[in-house]
Amino acid sequence: MRIQPEEIGQLLTPRSRRRRGMHPPAAVRGSRRRDVMSPLGPLGHARRLVRMLGHAAKVQATEVALMASFAARTPLHLVGGGLDPARGALAPVQAHTAPTARPVLLVHGFGGTKSCWSLVARNLGARGVTVDAITYAPFGTSVEQLADRLAVQVEKLLSQTGADKVHLVGHSLGGVVIAQAIESGRLIGQVDTVVTLGSPFGGSPWAHLLPFGRIVRELREDSPLLRRLASAPVPDGVRWLAFTATLDMIVPGMRSVPRHAEVETVTVGGVGHLGMLLSRRVVGRIVAALPA
After folding, report:
1. CATH class for domain 64-289?
2. What percent of the chain has a predicted confidence (pLDDT) above 90?
3. Is residue 63 a contact partner of residue 55, using CB atoms and an 8 Å limit?
4. Residue 62: band (very low, low, confident or very high) from pLDDT cuts 50, 70, 90
5. The 3-state secondary structure of 147-215, one letter per residue
6. Positive or negative, the Cα torsion across 169, 175, 179, 180?
7. CB-based contact 90:133 (threshold 8 Å)
8. Averaged over 217-233, what is the pLDDT?
9. According to the model, what pLDDT value does residue 4 have?
10. pLDDT tens digits for range 140-177
11. Distances, alpha carbon 199 to alpha carbons 18, 57, 252, 289, in Å
12. Three-state secondary structure along 261-276?
């Protein structure tokens, strides 16, 4: 029997192939190939993990320090409720008789004050934007009551500046207050852009650790208030930007993003819940998002 040259490779065993210097077909070589991890691979991954954990721990330590700082600066009389327009470093709003650039109204979070907005206000003011902020008590009130006060403040700011609309920026609880004010219908046609930072639209797990206060109960996951706000659409003509931080332990994950499809989400890495207020990256995005 005559064997064709191309059939020889099929008759040889793997051992005879090696002796003759022949190699298996490409398909066989591919099936036998194994990806061997470099001995330094696990060490490199471990080092990267240690750096990530170290950075996260540093961020959370900064968060604790910021909480202590904000708590120390919170005036005791705020527990009694009410606005405190005199407290804070923001300049008073000047009245205008002609239409002007749209002003920005800042709404802080639970237990905060106007001073929380120092970096944001300074950067907006450098652009010639009129900036105002409200201060409220976290106890003895509700989100709906704070939203009503916000609506009054918006009307006042529009009257003082002569502008047709305002931009609203809220941190944490402040964003929920803004959402409630919009849902109530009192701000129809008065709002241009809404920016929320770490606002617990999906609830905060910490709200379950504080068993007192109506406003705390309203921030629990699936509370009647949050369910109602989740089903309310964003009004026509209103742009909504929601910031969420990857290291936010107060409002973790996507809890800080409203469920509306129209909302633009900005995810910020390397900062926590309070750190967003001091992040130049975040402040820069806020300033850029607010048209005149």
Report:
1. alpha beta
2. 56
3. no
4. low
5. HHHHHHHHHHHHHHHCCCCEEEEEECHHHHHHHHHHHCCCCCCCEEEEEEECCCCCCCHHHHHCCCCHH
6. negative
7. yes
8. 94
9. 47
10. 899 999 999 999 999 999 999 999 999 999 999 999 99
11. 68, 22, 10, 18
12. CCCEEEEECCCCCCHH
Closest CA to 132 of 96, 149, 157: 157
**Range with the largest mean pLDDT of 31-40, 67-76, 92-101, 187-196:** 187-196
- The strand order across the sheet containing 191-197 reads 131-134, 104-107, 166-171, 191-197, 239-245, 264-268
183-197 pLDDT, tens per residue? 999 999 999 999 999
* Residue for token pair 């070589």: 29
> Cα-atom radius of gyration of the chain, to the nearest Å?
29
Residues 6+ apart with CB under 8 A from 251: 172, 198, 199, 200, 202, 204, 244, 273
Map out the domains of the chain as residue ranges.
64-289
Q: Which among 200, 133, 211, 205 has a CA at the least distance from the CA of 166?
A: 133
CA pair distance 170, 179, nearest whole angstrom = 9
Give me the pLDDT at residue 44, please: 57
Beta strands in the chain (DSSP E): 104-107, 131-134, 166-171, 191-197, 239-245, 264-268
Token pair in block for residue 195 = 């920016």
Greatest extent of the chain over all pairs of C-alpha atoms, in Å = 109
- Rounded-to-integer distance, Cα 82 and Cα 108, Å: 14
* pLDDT for residue 262 is more than 70: yes
Mean predicted lDDT score pLDDT of the chain: 77
CB neighbours of residue 156 within 10 Å: 14
